Predict the structure.
Amino acid sequence: MRRIRDLLLFAAALLCATPAAASHLRFGLQADPTTLDPAQSTAYIERIVFAAVCDKLIEIDAKLKYVPQLATEWQWSPDGLALTLKLRAGVIFHDGEPLDAAAVRFNIDRYKTAPYSRRQTELKSIKAITAVGPLTVRIELSEPYAPLLAQLADRAGMMVSPKAMRELGDKLSARPVCAGPYRLVEWVKQDRIVFEKFDRYWNAAAVTIDRVTYLPIVDDTVRLTNLRAGSLQLSERVAPTDLATVRGDSRLKLYESASLGYRVLTINTNKGDAAKTPLGSNAKLREAFELSIDRRAINQVAFDGAFIPSNQPEAPGTAFYAGALPLPSRDLARAKALVAETGLPRVPVNLLIGTDPSDARVAEIIQAMAGEAGFDVKITVLEASTLLSRLSSGTFEVAFVIWSGRADPDANIAIWAACDGFINYGKYCDPKLDGLFSRARASTDQAERARLYAEAASIYLAARPYLFLYHLKWFWGASAKLSGIVPHPDGIIRLQGLVLRE
């Protein structure tokens, strides 16, 4: 009896001495990133992955307030022409290099001047960056620019190691070296992106999961099946049609948040030969196309009413929504009349969409509705990187795209509609509109900014280079074993604070 007791005690001692199994979070994504260089990134999916690897100077909390991350505090000069940031002490990049004022200056210079950088427009008002101390940076502006904080709370504020940048060059896009909670271990395109916890992370106490693997799974049904089977512990963008399934599964939890993001049809009106189409060259046909569409019906049929029909980049009821320009109703008779004025028997339209099944549902509804007004809509499905390439080169007529949204209104519309907007793929341009954007950026008075953005909306909504369709809600499905999830309106899950119970 004593021998059995001793053996049991010995076995218990062995169990206590054995290290706990490493925790591993498998996160299902809707697509695979194209790049993991913050300078080159334009796709929303990349922002989700950046949350693991690249901290920012400034963070946005779940209530859209700016809070410290790599910078602990910041202050505007009285004239609004300089922003001074104090950096967090003791921050280390994944290659062991320190984050200091010189590193911040290097990063902002790269974002502002590198020929491949997609951050140039966001930072064009910066005229100088000065290291005024080892951990203090002053950013000087050519003109007041209220949205700068929002830019530093996004990719323009993500700091990469200057040493790694110099050594890796173009390879940094596949091997990011930042100062985030996890470091990259492996990236197999279209298969997996693997990160391991960075032990020297400045906020290491908030990181409890040892390994995170992002798995691109395009099909919503397959992603949900993997989540229910336990192969995933977290899945982004649960389809509205699957919400009841997640809610009804005791092994899962559903998280949701109203979103800054929206879906929009972008029309090529001014870039190359692809703009020389009936829709691209005729504003009345764009009006007819919009009048043929019923946004409320799209929301009900495609999403069971889960989203928010909208005709603007700001959601209804928010501070910068232009209430004088409400959601238009469908007017099929007027749409037919406008098409008839052109003398065309039918109007061909080539619509590019991504591989998300919900995109196909929306496109097919638009195809049917517009068809009643005289438009022959051809739907072309493209993988994400191919779609982005077509947009960037201007070889498209109409594309259905997503914008994940920003806390500052300028980053929700000027990036599309300003003459030099960095995702103004169809090169729509109106100097009067640019003037309104400039005045709105220079003001810190919210009421004045709202007035200016509403005046701008009266211009671009009439020209219709973009047809905003609906604002999203974010839905995440998670294993009941995963806790600490804080839904954010930007749709990005922060990994700090997550706990996975094995």
In short: Residues 261-473 form a domain with the Dipeptide-binding Protein; domain 3 fold (CATH 3.10.105.10). Residues 1-19 have pLDDT under 50 and may be disordered. The longest helix spans residues 446-463.
